[in-house]
Amino acid sequence: MSQPAVPAFQHVPVLLNECLQGLNLKPKMVVVDATLGGAGHSREIVKQIRGGTLVGFDRDTAALRYSADVLKAVDGVAIRLVKANFADLADNLHSMGIDGVDAILADFGVSSYQIDTPERGFSYTKDAPLDMRMDTDAELTAAQVVNGYSLKHLTDIISQYGEERYAGRIAAAIVAARPIRSTGHLTQVITNAVPAGYGKTGGHPAKRTFQAIRIEVNQELASIEKFIEGALSVLKPHGRLAVISFHSLEDRIVKQKFKLAATDCLCPPKIPQCICGHHATIKWLTKKPLCPTIQETKSNPRSASAKLRIIEKL
Ligand SMILES: C[S@@+](CC[C@H](N)C(=O)[O-])C[C@H]1O[C@@H](n2cnc3c(N)ncnc32)[C@H](O)[C@@H]1O
Predict the structure, then answer these.
(1) Which of 113, 273, 285, 312 is the most exposed place for a label (fewest CB within 10 A)?
(2) Distance CA 167, CA 144 (A)
(3) Best substitution site from 58, 116, 131 to test ligand 1's pocket, by max atoms within 8 Å of Cβ?
(4) pLDDT > 70: what percent of the chain?
């Protein structure tokens, strides 16, 4: 029998117990899952908020459809699912008539389902169209980035979003090989552009470039910045926000935003008395990020780079 092209929605929720505990869930709460995916976290969240509301966001229609199916049997919790970018979380909640939220979870990046569905074009291990859109209605695709961006633009993206030391060589090889027709073709061009043996220590030679193109296609970092601002604005006093990031670029934004919001005065140290009037609006609950245990990493290798940061609104 031949294998189906699209796998069943497989995604193991990361740092599940740490998230559930950190969010301090109680009956009747209004909780937002900003990244529903396969509802791996949400299906456990709803068990703890009887009489409450779960609002789930995702910009991937397949994730929403699957989550709707998983959550349809839930009794005693109002489920509201929204196809939207979490950057627009606050606006969406306001237009739904929700002005205050008790807990918010975000689990950034792509789901295993997205990576494992070849035609979505996220994986450098499968030959597929150059797509990489989380929202398949969005305009920008990986093909446009790979075949349309200038050498400089491509180099900048691969260097900044992929933190790839051979960004210049890879970008030049991509431009020389245009048109690049598929993910397999792109992987080959990247592999030929880097020194032989590169990747023996840092993973597949195409890993960082694929990450960079994905971040560009989905404007991931800009969305995260706007999300944190929106999430902090809609949290009720004592409400909690738990954020899981998977690479340093994501985590840096989360850390900086939380640090700013947790600080009282922002005046330069030379100024004897505060003139900025800035007041902390949150407190850190995790001074250091929580990371998966060795057991979790063993059973779910995709959790390996996860970092969970939790704050509470003052
Ligand atoms: C790592 S998965 C979440 C998995 C989920 N927590 C679970 O356990 O099943 C991330 C999900 O967030 C979605 N996503 C990523 N960035 C988004 C954004 N800016 N707005 C809305 N959804 C986003 C992706 O489409 C993906 O389905």
Answers:
(1) 273
(2) 18
(3) 58
(4) 98
Instruction: Give the pLDDT score at 287.
Output: 84
Q: For each of the domains in the chain, give its residue range(s) and CATH number, in order of start.
A: 16-107+220-313 (3.40.50.150), 123-218 (1.10.150.170)
Read off the pLDDT of residues 127-139 as tens digits, 9 standing for 90 and up. 999 999 999 999 9
Please give all residues whose beta carbon lies within 6 A of any atom in ligand 1, as ranges. 11, 13, 35, 37-41, 57-60, 63, 85-87, 107, 109-111, 134, 223
Whole-structure pTM over 0.90, yes or no? yes
